[in-house]
Specification:
Pfam families: DUF3105
Shape: rod-shaped
CATH topology of the largest domain: Glutaredoxin
Order of helices and strands: HEEEEEHEHEEEH
Number of domains: 2
Keywords: Membrane, Transmembrane, Transmembrane helix
Strand order of the largest sheet: 2-3-9-8-6-7-5
Number of strands: 9
InterPro entries: DUF3105
Number of helices: 4
Strand content: 15-25%
Protein name: DUF3105 domain-containing protein
Helix content: 40-55%
Radius of gyration: 35 Å
Largest sheet: 7 strands, mixed
Length: about 220
């Protein structure tokens, strides 16, 4: 009798121990599943955050249309194209998609390019150069189709003329172009008499939205 009772107790204890082992195993599996789920959630949040930041960065870098600049160029008898319409002048942080190239006005970055006879050898961010035009500068741009002698002669003229700047721009349609706020023309060479006429008329000319504003203290490159 006692032996049977002992066997029954042993079997019960064995079943209880087996149940405890099974419970501990379930708890371990649940902990592993919980940790794995947490890792997946955190990873998803990290990836989502990176994608959101990248998306916002890409959106900032993507040129935004200047919807407040409206109108078109009207060619003058003197060969100067004048913008007839509205040129916006709001400071923006995004890149701007201008309706003309090189731009002669429109929304632009708050920092201007130094334009105290500054000659740049690399293409400029247009949003900064437009701010220089707002200050009354003339911007000389050229492509690789312009001769080396013309580029050197134009650079020499710019360096001697306050409120001017010069830079390459492979996206423009003609080898040498001159731009001021609201005005633009093409010239055939550095010796073209229209270079001097354009400088005389538009360097701090009547078209300047902010006459007397600085052409130093801006961006050097």
């Amino acid at each position: 009798m006692g032996s049977a009772k002992n066997k029954s107790n042993a079997a019960r204890k064995a079943r209880i121990e087996e149940m405890r082992r099974a419970e501990r195993a379930r708890e371990r599996r649940n902990r592993i599943l919980t940790i794995a789920a947490s890792v997946v959630v955190v990873a998803g949040l990290v990836v989502g955050g990176v994608v959101l930041i990248q998306s916002q960065s890409d959106k900032k870098d993507e040129p935004q249309a200047d919807k407040k600049t409206t109108g078109k160029f009207v060619a003058g008898a003197d060969g100067v194209n004048t913008w007839k319409g509205t040129l916006a002048s709001t400071h923006v942080e995004t890149a701007v998609k201008y309706p003309m190239n090189p731009p002669v006005g429109g929304n632009h970055h708050r920092a201007w390019m130094n334009c105290n006879g500054d000659v740049y050898t690399k293409e400029l961010r247009k949003e900064n150069a437009v701010h220089s035009l707002e200050h009354g500068a003339v911007w000389v741009t050229y492509t690789s189709k312009a001769s080396k002698s013309d580029v050197e002669a134009l650079a020499a003229k710019v360096k001697q003329t306050p409120y001017t700047l010069m830079s390459p721009d492979e996206s423009q349609k003609d080898p040498i172009m001159l731009s001021a706020w609201g005005h633009q023309r093409t010239v055939t060479s550095a010796s073209d008499a229209n270079v001097g006429k354009f400088f005389e008329t538009y360097v701090q000319g009547e078209q300047t939205p902010e006459p007397g504003a600085a052409c130093t203290g801006g961006l050097p490159e």
